[in-house]
Design goal:
The complex is a heterodimer of chains A (308) and B (264).
Chain A lengths: L2 H27 L6 H18 L3 H24 L5 H19 L5 E3 L19 H20 L3 H11 L1 H6 L4 H27 L1 E3 L6 H16 L4 H24 L7 H13 L1 H28 L2
Antiparallel strand pairs in A: 1-2
Helix pairs in contact in A: 1-5, 1-6, 1-8, 1-9, 1-10, 2-3, 2-4, 2-8, 3-4, 3-8, 6-8, 9-10, 9-11
Chain B lengths: L1 E10 L7 E11 L4 E6 L5 H9 L6 E6 L2 E2 L5 H4 L3 E4 L13 H9 L13 H14 L16 H13 L5 E5 L7 H18 L3 E4 L3 H6 L3 E6 L2 E7 H5 L3 H12 L6 H5 L1
Parallel strand pairs in B: 3-8, 3-9, 6-7, 7-8
Antiparallel strand pairs in B: 1-2, 1-4, 4-5, 9-10
Helix pairs in contact in B: 3-5, 5-6
The chains are: A mainly alpha (308), B alpha/beta (264).
């Protein structure tokens, strides 16, 4: 694998890590599998691409974040106010956003950004020009990690984290869980949309289907990170998600390099997440089998002792 | 402190499973009163507590706490004034967060939940002091996750969380029922200590008749959603478990056939 391909996959990993942190917020701290992600990622990309074509690549990022925030809020309200199951609420918003994303993209399925201003070519002529491709995402990612780390230790951050653990307890300490869920899903999809906005400018295009399977990639990153780097402290958890996202990109790059057809990408992602999610069951099954075979061996020894 | 007027709650109204769980209950608790509640399964004890806590909305009647009509307040809002410990030790704490984080959330009760730092240094010293008073050694484990604690330790922590900001009312819903006997005794003892220390107005549901008479200042017995016995003072001091069972039979017109209640 060439160094260039390796660097490219790491750069993508940095940008996708922001999305994975969003999935971490909904999946781990709120304990909700939020499928809004698939469409809020595209929404972020669409808003970002449109604003780039209008000449505002930097404004594109906060604008995409606001759009993501609102998308997450809608899912939260469907769940808390209309009592629709979280999974279904996410699917409904995902479906509805497909049309909205097309509208944002002026009814085109694809917006190319070649020869358009983006945050990546905006620093041309400065000394960091050659580094923008990894430097900008990295600075953004570090800022996100720092802010999340601080936020999750504030008074509101604590109850947000407790909501996924035990919502009954959060209400018992006098906090409205509808508010924590509204805010949590908003925050999660803000990060997802920011990631989508960066990806669109990085790849120089936005596509209506670029978010398909994004929640699965996010989950894979979260779980790979947890398995390999642990969950002992908050900072470790956040860093684990980031490393998980980068590792995931690296594995995909290597698989592609070894000749895996790109069309199989989604299948491989689905298999990775299936294995990761079922790892407790698999572990338990292996252990019980070991136990059984041990007790069987024990019995055999006894039988032999009885019949010399 | 607490005034309940003709409170009623029916489950599955209009269906074949319709059940009148609380039937026109009137109950007044004075400040500092520690009331124990006994009764068989389905007597309405837990439903009464859950109506007060805001988990269920009553069909009829009113609940007034310290002059505030909280009958239709959402659960989270009245929690500012009510401390609760649940039967299930898993329900009172966030298992994936540390002891100090759990206490910090309880300590922030009634304060604004913004971007203030969650745990301040001064708070930590206070938490350590409170934990040390429980006598379980938890003050040396403040950075450990609650998931590592035993059921008894969790209930003790939940008790502390429920009282660290002095509530107007403490609701204990069979909070020792899921514990082994020695842990149950310890948690009951801690309950008594905390209630007496803070002079808390308390409502404790229990299946243990002996404990119901031993702890608290007043005992009520429920049956079929109604209060059929309410004793305090001299009458209660002279009461024994045997007499209580006899009284139950006379008042309810039924034999007390609940093994759990008898053996407890």
């Amino acid at each position: 694998m060439s160094l260039l391909a390796l660097q490219g996959s790491l750069e993508l990993g940095i940008i996708y890590a922001i999305m994975a942190l969003g999935v971490f917020i909904s999946f781990r701290t709120l304990n909700m599998p939020d499928l809004t992600v698939d469409s809020s990622f595209t929404l972020g990309a669409a808003v970002s691409a449109m604003l780039c074509t209008m000449g505002h690549p930097f404004l594109a990022l906060p604008a995409a974040m606001v759009a993501g925030w609102l998308a997450g809020n809608v899912t939260a309200l469907l769940y808390t106010k209309l009592k629709i199951q979280p999974l279904l609420a996410g699917i409904l918003v995902m479906l509805g956003l497909y049309s909205i994303n097309l509208r944002v993209m002026a009814n085109r399925a694809n917006i190319p950004l070649l020869n358009q201003p983006t945050v990546f070519n905006s620093l041309q002529g400065t000394p960091v020009e050659a580094q923008t491709h990894w430097l900008l995402p990295l600075v953004l990612l570090l800022a996100v990690i720092l802010l999340l780390y601080l936020f999750l230790q504030t008074r509101f951050g604590l109850v947000l984290r407790a909501t996924g653990d035990n919502d009954q307890m959060v209400r018992a300490v006098g906090v409205n869980t509808n508010i924590t869920i509204l805010f949590g899903l908003g925050l999660a999809n803000t990060l997802v949309a920011l990631s989508g906005a960066m990806i669109a400018q990085y790849q120089s295009f936005a596509d209506i289907s670029m978010g398909v399977g994004m929640v699965i990639i996010g989950l894979a990153s979260v779980i790979i990170g947890e398995v390999l780097f642990g969950t002992s402290s908050l900072l470790r958890r956040l860093l684990a998600v980031v490393l998980g996202a980068m590792l995931y990109r690296l594995v995909i790059a290597i698989a592609l390099h070894l000749g895996m057809p790109p069309t199989d990408l989604k299948l491989v992602s689905a298999i990775i997440v299936t294995i990761a999610l079922s790892s407790p069951v698999i572990k338990e099954g292996l252990m019980s089998r070991q136990k059984r075979s041990r007790s069987y061996a024990h019995k055999e020894v006894k039988d032999n002792a009885g019949n010399p | 402190m607490l005034e309940i007027r003709s409170l009623s709650k029916t489950f599955s109204m209009g269906s074949i499973n319709e059940k009148l769980a609380v039937d026109e209950v009137d109950l007044t608790l004075e400040a500092g009163e520690f009331v124990t509640v006994i009764g068989g399964n389905g007597a309405g004890k837990s439903t009464l507590l859950n109506c007060i806590a805001g988990v269920y909305e009553p069909d009829k009647g009113s609940i007034v706490l310290d002059g505030m009509d909280i009958t239709y307040w959402p659960e989270y809002k009245r929690s500012q004034y009510i401390g609760r410990v649940f039967q299930d030790p898993l329900k009172g704490t966030a298992f994936d967060m540390t002891i100090e984080e759990n206490l910090a959330m309880a300590y922030a009760k009634g304060k604004p939940h913004g971007l203030q730092w969650g745990i301040r240094k001064a708070d930590l010293a206070l938490f350590r002091e409170h934990l040390a008073r429980l006598g379980l050694g938890l003050e040396n484990r403040m950075k450990q996750k609650v998931g590592l604690l035993s059921g008894g330790q969790r209930q003790a922590l939940t008790l502390l969380m429920a009282t660290i900001v002095k509530p107007k009312l403490l609701l204990l819903d069979e909070h020792t029922a899921a514990l082994d006997p020695s842990a149950a005794r310890q948690v009951l003892y801690l309950t008594k200590e905390l209630v007496e220390q803070h002079q808390l107005c308390t409502l404790m549901v229990t299946h243990n008749m002996k404990a119901a008479l031993e702890y608290g200042t007043r005992t009520i017995m429920m049956h079929d959603g109604r209060i059929i016995l309410d004793i305090s003072g001299e009458e209660r001091r002279k009461m024994t478990v045997d007499k209580l069972i006899e009284l139950f039979g006379r008042r309810s017109g039924q034999e007390l056939d609940n093994d759990r209640l008898l053996l407890g």
